[in-house]
Amino acid sequence: MRPFTYQRPDSLAEALALAARPSTTVLAGGTTLVDLMRQGIETPSDIVDIRRLAELAGSTVYSDRIEIGALTPMSRVAEHAAVRTDFPALAQSLQQAASQQLRNGHGRGQCPAADSLCLLSGREFSV
Ligand SMILES: Cc1cc2nc3c(=O)[nH]c(=O)nc-3n(C[C@H](O)[C@H](O)[C@H](O)COP(=O)(O)OP(=O)(O)OC[C@H]3O[C@@H](n4cnc5c(N)ncnc54)[C@H](O)[C@@H]3O)c2cc1C
């Protein structure tokens, strides 16, 4: 693994400023990113750990959309009443992804290969 700097900001504004630098990668739970770094596929110079940003965890329902925070665990999204009602295939895919431990502790998957993102790409959504 190549050397890198590690920073864990306390505010979203600071995180965004740090993440805007070239060759910087965001770390959420680390389950995908650390594997990719070990394999030399991802080689960031700087890592910004967003796990202190509580505002990124949780889901908010609006009249026309549901916003899912980047740090919301997969199991929390799958259990959300509005997701179960309006996006049953998303709830189902998240219930079947990975292991219970990963579903409880890690993000719904920013990884382009994640099952739920493939599913969402067939619907109107933004990241
Ligand atoms: C044993 C195992 C089994 C798995 N099985 C499945 C499965 O069946 N189905 C499935 O879909 N997935 C599966 N996964 C993948 C799992 O869903 C992902 O590892 C997990 O969701 C990634 O979340 P994380 O919080 O650990 O992200 P990280 O590893 O921290 O980040 C993943 C990527 O997203 C980027 N990122 C993170 N947060 C942000 C952000 N806020 N903004 C922009 N980019 C960001 C990171 O830079 C990185 O490139 C499995 C993983 C493991 C280890």
Would you kindly provide a brief summary of this structure?
The protein has 127 residues and is α/β, with parallel strands linked by helices. It has helices at residues 12-19, 33-38, 74-79, 81-86, 88-96, 100-105, 115-120, and strands at residues 5-7, 24-27, 46-49, 59-61, 66-68. It folds into 2 domains: 5-49, 2-Layer Sandwich (Uridine Diphospho-n-acetylenolpyruvylglucosamine Reductase, domain 2); 57-120, no CATH class.
Write the layout of secondary structure elements.
Elements: E1 5-7, H1 12-19, E2 24-27, H2 33-38, E3 46-49, E4 59-61, E5 66-68, H3 74-79, H4 81-86, H5 88-96, H6 100-105, H7 115-120
This protein binds flavin-adenine dinucleotide (FAD).
| Uncertain ranges | none
Unique bound compounds: flavin-adenine dinucleotide
Number of domains: 2
- Taken as a percent bin, the fraction of beta residues is 5-15%
| Biggest sheet statistics | 3 strands, parallel
Domain FAD-binding PCMH-type: 1-127
Organism: Saccharopolyspora phatthalungensis
Keywords: FAD, Flavoprotein, Oxidoreductase
GO molecular function: FAD binding; oxidoreductase activity
Give structural notes:
With 127 residues, the protein is of the alpha/beta class. 37% of the residues lie in helices and 13% in strands. The chain contains 7 helices and 5 strands; from the N terminus they run βαβαβββααααα. The strands form 2 sheets. Strands 1-3-2 form a 3-stranded parallel beta sheet, with helices on one face. A two-stranded antiparallel sheet has the order 4-5. Strand 2, helix 2 and strand 3 (46-49) form a beta-alpha-beta unit. The structure holds flavin-adenine dinucleotide. Flavin-adenine dinucleotide is lined by residues 25-33, 50, 70, 97-98, 102, 106-107, 109-111, 114-116. Residues 1-127 form the FAD-binding PCMH-type domain. Keywords: FAD, Flavoprotein, Oxidoreductase.
